[in-house]
Design goal:
Arginase, Chain A; alpha/beta; globular
């Protein structure tokens, strides 16, 4: 498996012209300071971007907040493994993938579709960003969505149903839907986004309702894609809320920190070293 990295960077626009032997940037986008006590052993391997001062970024992302987030992450490019706080900030995946100017497919592991109809015009949110990528990104070839409930998948409305391939939580539990893997275009570079709410509470405690995947099952599915095609970058969200009571918070941080370290180790064994 190969990591595609930018060959040139002009004025904040990243252009992907092939493979280049350079170290990727692994980022932590810290909106809530939830990472202060996590990933301690690997802290020196990350570029830490403090986003806690960006107003209008929680759940909904105002145009001003989007411009500021984009300004802070663009110098690093898209390549690498990026932790982006809780699921409230999953829309950052759209900002990352906007930097890809060559054909790519997006793999999303999430217990929710994140394809709701926008409630506020001109403002994306953690609940509608994926639909915006599917409908608006001109270089997106396919969107592979893994983990939502069947009922939620049936509610998706998109301009490009031909680009969307889904695998529901129910299908994964029953071992069904494998034949749809044949619809995925081979050789197209990937961007991978993981919301840890796709995992059971044994492996992650998030601020949203969760699925039933084990960490081993998630890594097994990731391995399939990591061995399938080159990867532009990977992001991970799904931290707990910092507003919960301290005993529950420390417990959640312990579970999430352990999973973050294991995911980072696993992903780096395939790419982004």
């Amino acid at each position: 498996m190969r990591l595609l990295v930018p060959s040139e960077n002009f004025g904040g626009d990243v252009y992907y012209g092939g493979e280049l032997q350079m170290k990727p940037y692994h980022l932590i986008l810290d909106f809530t300071h939830v990472y202060d006590d996590e990933i301690c052993a690997d802290r020196e391997q990350f570029s830490w971007i403090d986003c806690s001062d960006i107003e209008g970024s929680d759940l909904y992302c105002s145009p001003q907040a989007e411009r500021e987030i984009r300004r802070r992450i663009e110098p690093y490019g898209v390549h690498g493994i990026h932790f982006v706080d809780s699921g409230n900030y999953h829309y950052v995946t759209r900002i990352f993938t906007d930097q890809i100017h060559s054909p790519f497919s997006l793999i999303v592991f999430d217990h929710h579709t994140d394809m709701q109809q926008p409630l506020m015009e001109g403002m994306m949110s953690c609940g509608d960003w994926a639909g915006m990528v599917l409908d608006q990104n001109p270089t997106l070839q396919q969107f592979i969505l893994i983990g939502p409930a069947e009922d939620d998948i049936r509610q998706i409305r998109t301009k490009h149903p031909d680009k969307l391939i889904t695998f529901s939580a129910e299908e994964i539990r029953k071992g069904e839907g494998v034949e749809r893997l044949k619809r995925i275009h081979g050789g197209v570079p990937l961007y991978i986004s993981i919301d840890k709410d796709v995992l059971s509470e044994q492996y992650s405690e998030t601020n949203w309702n969760q699925g039933e995947l084990t960490l081993g099952m998630l890594e097994h599915m990731l391995q399939y894609f990591l061995e399938w095609a080159p990867v532009y970058g990977i992001d991970i969200c799904g931290e707990c809320s910092t507003a919960i009571a301290l005993p529950e918070y420390f417990q959640a941080e312990g579970i999430n920190g352990k999973t973050n370290v294991e995911l980072f180790r696993f992903l780096r064994s395939y790419c982004c070293s």
